[in-house]
Amino acid sequence: MTPIRILICEDDAEKRSHLCQLLAGCEGFEVVGAFESGEAAVSNTPKLAPDVVIMDIELPGISGVESTAQIKAKRPEAEIIMYTVFEDDDKLFDSLCSGASGYLLKKTPPHRLVEGIQEVMEGGSPMSPGIARKVIQHFHPNPRKQECPLCERELNILKLLVEGLPIKAIAGKVFLSIDGVKNNLRNIYRKLHVSSGKEAVAKAVRDGLV
């Protein structure tokens, strides 16, 4: 059986070494690379062709979230498991929106990480219990949730933004000029209290706006 090719991105040298030892010692796993920065992980992805990437979030240079998006662009078939100390909603949903397939906390027992790699290769989405609960809660109706502040056109534009469409394509879908879409996006950012499209997408998914 072909081994599962694993790439590790962790800036802490000791933790990176422990991960390498743990995973390299598992039957059916092959650690093809271990890097301390997102830039190195991204640049080496094409030649190392990992099946699974274990990705820290807080890294020197580009973040693990941005690294995830760039790796998925270079190798869409790679499954990425965020492996982090962060439990907050923003980092969780930013990671999922960037293409992560799983989200495990570093306090997770080592055997759960091993199981998570096998699980993600079988089409699953491994998550620590508290993280999974957060995801489930966001799909439950919340009677106390505030009414969406966006008008119908702004909401349609936000939906297209969540789908990953660029501004030019959105303009064609909603029959507006590019400048018209940009004006609507500025209004969306202001109403949602965010400063970028990425933050708007994360908030839309997190708050169930689309």
* Low-confidence sequence ranges: none
Care to count the β-strands? 5
CATH topology of the largest domain: Rossmann fold
Q: Tell me the count of domains.
A: 2
Q: Given this structure, which CATH class of the largest domain is correct?
A: Alpha Beta
Question: Superfamily at the CATH H level of the largest domain?
Answer: Response regulator
Question: What does this entry look like structurally?
Answer:
By secondary structure, the protein is an alpha/beta fold. It folds into two domains: 4-137, Rossmann fold; 152-206, Winged helix-like DNA-binding domain superfamily/Winged helix DNA-binding domain (Arc Repressor Mutant, subunit A, Orthogonal Bundle). It contains ten helices and five strands. It has helices spanning 13-24, 38-48, 64-74, 89-98, 110-121, 129-137, 152-162, 167-174, 178-192, 197-206, and strands at 4-9, 29-35, 52-55, 79-84, 102-105. It has a five-stranded parallel sheet with strand order 2-1-3-4-5, with helices on both faces. α3 (64-74) links the parallel β3 (52-55) and β4. α2 runs parallel beside α3, α8 (167-174) packs across α9 (178-192) and α9 (178-192) crosses α10. The longest helix is centred in the C-terminal third of the chain and has 15 residues, at 178-192. The mean pLDDT is 89.
